[in-house]
Design goal:
The chain is α/β, with parallel strands linked by helices. The protein has helices at about 20-35, 55, 80-95, 110-120, 140-160, 170-175, 195-200, 210, 235-245, 250-255, 270-285, 300-310, 325-330, 345-350, 360-375, 380-390, 395-410, 440-445, and strands at about 10-15, 40-45, 60-65, 105, 125, 160-165, 185, 220-225, 260-265, 295, 315, 335-340, 355-360. Pfam families: Glyco_transf_4 (PF13439), Glycos_transf_1 (PF00534).
Amino acid sequence: MEKSRKANVVFIHPDLGIGGAERLVLDVAVALSKEHKNVSFVTNHFNRNHAFQELRDNNFPVSVIGDWLPRSICGICQALCAYFRMVFLALIQVLFVKVKPDVYFVDQIPIAVPFIKWAGGKVIYYCHHPDLLASPLGGSLKRIYRLPINWLELKGTSMADVILVNSKYTASVFHKTFPEITQSIEILYPTIASSYLDMIQNMKPKSIKTLIPELEPLHDPFIFLSINRFHPAKKLELAIEALKMLQNKLSSKDWDRVHLIMAGGFDPHSTTNATYFSKLVKLSESKELSGKITFLKSPSDDLKADLLLACRCLIYTPVNEHFGIVPLEAMTAAKPVIACNSGGPCETIVDDVTGYLCEPTPASFSEGLFKILNNQDLLKMGVLGRERLEQCFSYNMFCTKVNKVVDTVVYGVQSPEPSLPEKIVEEKEDANLTHDSTVKMDKELTNLFESPCSTTYLSTADSSTDICDSDVSNQEETVPILNDHVEVNEESSF
């Protein structure tokens, strides 16, 4: 294909809702459109009222195929139905759509890949996390049920022209889960959308009492913020239990200042969301924390940004999160992050520099909260986090990598390699940044990119483009999820 002609890229995604996977594919679409590529979406389900702004604004064409097909059979077999819906979509796409794209971008359900390849198409497959790990092994019937689904995932994934993953952690899990797949995989870190970056940079911080009127009586409130879907996989009860343990570490005066805001996506049609939300509320009541916790369902992007600017620290509780976009959102607002010492946060957060990495226990998280409360350099910690975001996970780096991958598949050539940003280390003078040690800011920035984790990583084909060489920690790769539904593996707060 001549590079002078615009490349046509079709995204195949099972459900264009509001989550981390949807945010990722939209960011890829925006990055491609900025380089004048034609982008469109094909999906099994799309509700314009429950979608990201780019889709609500009709920025990209969306075709819905197979929404009438069942999502489950008597409440079970969600994964099987999801695969069947995707097979139907793929068949319609390759048999009845006359104008074929130059490349398909597929994620979450790889069963579409073989049909596209058999029709002569090219495919980029983005693996948020191996789906076969999303379901407990169960008994004999469950194993038999999952056997063909797992085989189809393996075969579909292996047939892609390019395989992308969202982190070094996911890459290591991928290799151990699919040892039969020997082709190289590349890392495409998720990023923060340029529109969100602009919004954060242009917003004037608001008082937390303006955002949450019920906090008006508090004097100098110290706000911890949790942003995540109200879903059991996010382990939000960890924040509540840690907050209760923190109470025993503080004087009554300091405790009176502390407040936790738990904000996140909530689908009123989801039984899982409703049940888990109710469980969290009851837990806060049983811990006598009702007055210490504010729950916010599906806050707007504006409110979420306001909360990030107004809080002192983000609490991120998922265990073995595949990547985790929310810590990057906090780093955009120059806020430190407390997170589990497993999964993607080991690559985004530098322990004791841009936040704290904790064991997934209430005791460890409460210690992290206590350190934040007593840290005199929170502002500096937040600034270092923003520096790390700009150096390792910037939107420009994301756009360059996306277009390079697509150009390689479509044209057989790569886009020009970006020059690595020079790491400018300066002494930052700020009257508000008091530091009781003699360690200079330039030394901390130099240490910023040292590995927060300790073990090695299975190398990828494009490791040379990673300027942040933080290794993957020695973690348990099997991620416990509570059902077998082929679901968004990497969802953010919405």
